[in-house]
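Researcher: Please predict.
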Amino acid sequence: MEKDELDLKEELKELKELKRQELKKRRNREDGGSKEGKIKPNAIYLSNLEKQNTTEDQLIDEFSKFGAIKRDQAGVPKCKLYKDDEGKVKGDALIVYARHESVPIAIEMMNGYKLNGFEIKVEVAQFQDKKRKLEDSNDEERSYKSVKSHNNEENVPKPPVVVIGNILDLYEDYHEQELDDIKRDILDGCLEIGFVKKIDLNSVTGEAEVSFENESHARNCCKEMNGRFFDGRRLLVYMKGEEDESPSDDESQRDSSEGDDLLE
């Protein structure tokens, strides 16, 4: 295994350990053990917006007065004006700030403020992670039962899994919307290689696990993505269970100029 890749693995191990220690200290500082208090929110939810003239640009202009709005990988501010299936504004929106300190200021200054003639409501955004995980697990269970009706459980082969290390910043607290965006980026890139069955993100280890339909697609993913960069971080991509195996000659000699970002 090349020295650079060994160094990256060691660096990832150290970052994981630091992240675990940081999370442990944070839990010890919390009073009452409430889950809601463990992560300071950096997103706000707006409702009762005027539907005809309100735009995302207007919201960005109004709410950037209270702090920098976080940007995605393309540099676009994270402000989403929700629309229905016909593309019509529904009257609510989500804004993600770069720092959590901006949230209480924005709420204090803008909750009840008249925007385009409507008295808007501004509150801390509540992400329904548990509900989504439950829905996802129910979908997976229904899919699994369909397979099991034709095959015994022990005969269902496990899909090959690719681990993408360093995909997440271990020192950043991600909201559900941000993780969904990253999942979509990963999915778009992996679908160019083969059929993807599932993607899991682990914010503690900073890794993603991608389940492919067959092993050849999974190994091609390792070959194509190992060593690429995503959001400024160099990725370590390998087959799950083969962490200590050396990369192939093609992988180790892949042109580093091939795509600056993981999925572009």
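Model: Helices lie at 3-29, 56-63, 102-110, 129-148, 176-191, 215-225, 249-252.
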